[in-house]
Design a protein that fits this description.
432 residues; alpha/beta; Rossmann fold; 4 domains; five-stranded mixed beta sheet; four-stranded parallel beta sheet; 25 helices; 11 strands; globular; Glc_ox_4Fe-4S; Glycolate oxidase iron-sulfur subunit; 4Fe4S_Fe-S-bd; iron
Length: 432
Amino acid sequence: MNSLEHLQEKVNYDKIFDCVQCGYCLPACPTYETMERETHSPRGRINLVKMVAEGKASVEDLRDPIEKCLGCMACTTVCPTNVQYGQILEGAKEVIEEHDVKSMAQKKVEAFLFESFFPSSNWMGTLGNATWLYQKSGIQKFVQTTYLTALAPMRLGRFERVLPDLPSPFERAFRKRRVLPDYKLRTTVAFFTGCVMDGIFFKTNQHTVELLRLAGAEVLLPKEQTCCGALHSHSGKGLSAKELAMTNIEAFDLEDVDYIVNNAGGCGAKMTEYPHLFEQGTEWHERAKEFAAKVRDISEVLVELDGLTFTTPVPRTVTYQPSCHMTNVQRVSEPPRMLLNNIPGLKVKELNRPDFCCGSAGIYNLVNYDESMEILDLKMIDVIERKPNAIITTNPGCLLQMKLGVERHGLEGEMEAMHLVDLLMEAEPAAK
């Protein structure tokens, strides 16, 4: 296979011709709206990929447009010809990764982050415990008051200010791996804890398990599960994503469950796409299809079980910021809204453009901070017009991004960002 054939195979060249360059994707694309360049629109990116695959442009010409794509998949919801943009995008990222010239230091850092840090529950627990100590010891307050956070690389200091209060190491250490409902057993599920969710939003994960238990589910937490692989795919590390998928499929195959439940839109989306990682007709492709068929967002399962009643009114006005990957890839839209409408005393104001990305997109807001903030500011204009007390999200990246939006616009004390699961717990759910 020559280099051009290799490029064409990597970028799914045959799928490129499904794009008829009609432009329906343009109004749906956040980066086209903020950057106002054809090359930073879905059809423009697809055309660039085609030119590279045909040897008419260099891989370097592809780098900035592809790296600046959020991967929100909003374009796929309006595409009249069902272009598989996600597969083309991930293929292009793998090609860029292959052609990237990196220093030894960069390679070592990436190897640690993607091969050791994110896939490891031990490292995630260590991150959470270290952050808990940082918060409780007074170091955080000292660092913030002396503005040392401004020295952090990649604007990490901005995100440090909006981290939630983390649980103690004791709480993490004594988490149960199996819980049973008090009353009628309606289903048995396995819970996918995620890496960022478990490291930073551990309490939300605990609330997720409790909601499932109250709704009538036996909940299992497979110990051998690992990172979903979304961050790896977004960074062009397709082989690593495939290996993580295999680990998760094997871990969850050990449990006889009806559903594999997650509370992170990005993680759920990646897991539903596991079959794309394997060649059709292979054993792993079939196993991935069986796995993906069981993947459900927590909101879907709670609505289906219909086992909860909310006992305490929540006198708030909220708006709902949907996860792009949950909406555009998992195709889950109504269940979160149905749950919100079931909370007594809650007033829900729909955003004018709910499907417009918040700019988080995995680690996009870290590696493309300025571009991400332009998108976030547009989202916050929409939010502020609704005048909510809280912004409700269903994904850790969206949650941190919206917390940053509240802080960035000086709205602390007026509104907060919350995960849907935590709001449901505030309404004191009980089994029906």
